[in-house]
Amino acid sequence: MDGLQVLSALCLITCLLQRTSPAPSTSSSTPGLTHGIVIDAGSSGSRVRVYSVQYEDSLPRVEEIGNLRVKPGLAEFATRLTEVAEYLNPLLLRAQELVPRAQWPTTPIYLMSTAGLRLVDAAQSSQLFTEVRGIFSNKTACPFLFQHRDQARVLSGEEEGVYTWITVNYLREYFGKGRPYSDTHGILEMGGASTQIAFIPTTPILANKFYVSMAGEKYPLYAHSYLYFGATYMDIRVKAFLAAESPGSTELEDPCMLTGDVKHQPAPNRTDTDSLQFIGTGNSTACEAILETFQRQTPTEFCYPKPCAIGDIYQPVLPEHMLFTAVSAYVYAPAALGALEDDRTLTPRILREKALLYIQKNLTEAIEQIGESRRQYASAYAMMGLYLPMLLQRSYGFHSDSTQVIATNDVDGKGIAWTLGALLYELESGMLTSSRPTGNPDPCNASGRTSHHLSALYTALMVVLQGICLQFLVRL
């Protein structure tokens, strides 16, 4: 075959490839998947969320179709392994009700635990998850798709923050539109045990960098989780601080509690008493002084990389105009204190001013303001009203009059749950059909990058072949 025949054949092959062979897809979602199940194993309870999945364009359409919550938290069974199957059974039965029977074998199920189980002894946690995986692998107990061990695991706090970030921006219909990073929302999340922050900074990320791939685009996130900085544990830390300051006392004054409120708490490290009594004094100055001790920054010379938020934890400077969606504990106290604008804007200065007025009330007066149904949270709102502005300003770097924070638990009526982001991440990263790497999970989409590179290689090859053919035709 001479050179002319070779070039003719090459051009013919190029045309046939263009007409019959689409470029490799950049989406790694699993075709044919119609449902997904995620169990959120929280500190006070576990909730199963069942999602429908439809494939449209470059991003799957995922919607929650039902859920069920059971109490207590899974951590309660760390030393009662024989009761785990009975505990999970109502959640599995609810999922079976919502997913058509024919889809059970192909519907993936996940159980992901948050901060509550991060606090459990490592050996006990390992045994607990071995038990859970055994139940999920038993097709009689769990008829759903359970492929690999990491479908049941403890999330890192950073993963929880990243998944919440995905959820918020997915519900806001950001992905797949070619919009700039500045249009994304950062997220602020606080549960009982930990608090998370995640956003795309405008400066290079020097630590805590996570990549998220959605609809063929890759997003570089900063994410960090602070364990023991959640709403419940901050109250525990305040009381532990007070107990340490008065080691011989069994009755302690708590400046972060309302006057007239009294609480009892176990004293595990005391030999003279089994419990301590905390009496509210409603002293905002003393309360803020205690809260400040937990949020001190390390001296500049020990902060590396810079800048630092709490202690020596690095955090990039917040983008000046980026909005942040704040969920869970960021919503409850500000809403109860009347500190949110009509559009749910949370301004640190306004929240602190409302809290300073509220903490001056006694318990009876406070209940008149917030309602009898919230009695058990009356003093918690006082502490949180002072804690949140300090966290936002002193630690994260928001200005006192900033209007960047939107405190809400929904987007256009759709609830914000990290479980949605977790399922989207699994769908987009191709984790449903291949084994997940062992070790510390990193939200970094390797398979997404591979398919993207294949697509780019295919396109480049077609361009080269077209160029050769064009030169050949011109010479003819």
From TrEMBL:
Any single GO CC term annotated in Swiss-Prot or TrEMBL for this entry: plasma membrane
Gene name as annotated: LOC106171875
Query: Under what name is this protein listed?
Result: Ectonucleoside triphosphate diphosphohydrolase 1 isoform X1
Provide the alphabetized UniProt keywords. ATP-binding, Hydrolase, Nucleotide-binding, Signal
> Which is one GO molecular function term here?
ATP binding
Gene Ontology terms: biological process: nucleoside diphosphate catabolic process
Where does the record place a coiled coil? none
Q: Which Pfam families match?
A: GDA1_CD39 (PF01150)
Query: Where does the signal sequence lie?
Result: 1-22
State the family it belongs to: Belongs to the GDA1/CD39 NTPase family.
Catalytic positions are: 160
Domain of life of the organism in this record? Eukaryota
Annotated positions binding ATP: 192-196
The keyword ATP-binding is annotated on this UniProt entry: yes
Q: What is the lineage of its organism?
A: Eukaryota, Metazoa, Spiralia, Lophotrochozoa, Brachiopoda
